[in-house]
Amino acid sequence: MRLHLSTWQEVEAYLDRSRAILVPIGSTEQHGPNGLLGTDALCPEIIAEHAAKDEDILVGPTLNVGCAQHHLGFAGSMTLRPSTMISVMMDWVASLEQHGFERIYWFNGHGGNVATIEAAFAEVYSKRSFSLSHPNSDLRLRLQNWWRLPSVAEFCAKVFPIGEGSHVTASEVAVTYFAYPEHIKRVEMSPKIAPSGEFRDAEHYRGQFPDGRIGSDPSQASPEIGKQIVEVAAAALAKDFRAFADDI
Ligand code: NI
To answer: How many domains does the chain divide into?
Structure first.
């Protein structure tokens, strides 16, 4: 069930059954020569929608621009400052809490968001601690990165033993190719496997990683493998979300 494809009456009825919502969160940033700019927002969205086909999971709107300042050297990349993203997340939480949601599961697709998501959680909890004004609500926030779900990393390592990398991974590109086969790009990678290393700002990143990839060969991605990854991840997600939703 998707929030933006539901009526308010349907959401009200869902709240009678559950106080938990899943919010996909990602980024709009370059993903090398064959990856879509939306990859990091699309992956959690695709996996969440797949999980919600068989389970009673309400999937909120995708927060699809995150913290990606280091990608701004590449056309189309967009970012929020960490402070802006914290404010946005706090307002999303406050809106949902107002309707009675008490378990907000942030399902993330971008490693660069992790520190800021955790800082946003600390802000939300700090506000509650200072005001002590929510005696009747039991608000809990959870961060889960899709590639960290149980058995997903092992599965990705098995299907892509070489060249999975850390940015523009073969796995994330495969997931988007499964959902959007009309946007598959066939591109020869040069070098075959991209360099690895650290980065600072956008100029430094572009200098270190000229085509945008880090450590990966995403030309291995295929929709068939993407389908398998989505199935493994969706099953793990449904279980993890249910445990969070039902925890009292
Ligand atoms: Ni990515």
So the answer is: 1
* Residues near ion ligand 1 (Cβ under 5 Å): 39-40, 172
**CATH (domain of 172):** 3.40.50.10310
| Helices H / strands E in the chain, number of each | 8, 3
Q: 173 alpha carbon to ligand 1 midpoint, in Å?
A: 8
Which residues span the domain enclosing 126?
Answer: 3-246
Give residue-wise pLDDT tens across range 100-154.
999 999 999 999 999 999 999 999 999 988 887 655 689 999 999 999 999 999 9
Distance 200 CA to ligand 1 centre (A): 17
Could you tell me the pTM of the whole model?
Answer: 0.97
- State in Å: Cα 20 to ligand 1 middle: 26
Give the Cα-Cα-Cα angle 44, 220, 170 (nearest 5 degrees): 30
Please report, as a single letter, which amino acid is at residue 229. I
